[in-house]
Amino acid sequence: MSTDDREIEIYGPPAFEPGEQVRCKKHIRNDGTVPGAEIGDFVVRKDEEGYVRDIGTFLNQFYIYAVEFVDSRSIVGMRRDELISVDKEMAT
Known about the structure:
Layout: H1 3-6, E1 21-24, E2 28-29, E3 42-44, E4 49-58, E5 62-69, E6 74-78, E7 83-85, H2 86-91
Antiparallel strand pairs: 1-4, 1-7, 2-3, 4-5, 5-6
């Protein structure tokens, strides 16, 4: 178990906000939660950009960001460490 897995992320504010443009940091495969895709299929490719639609939680510990990826036509639940903010990169 890594240090990040022990952290109670929801004690702090979300890393991203609804409407924020984000980029995927790695290839993401379907873990069975993306309808219309087989388990193991790639649902998001590294560097694909999307927009945060909603924020939920998982196990009362982590934020899950519902990200709409326009190119792959999918909405995928993502963790903080899988994303980087395009909006914040452009502001610096």
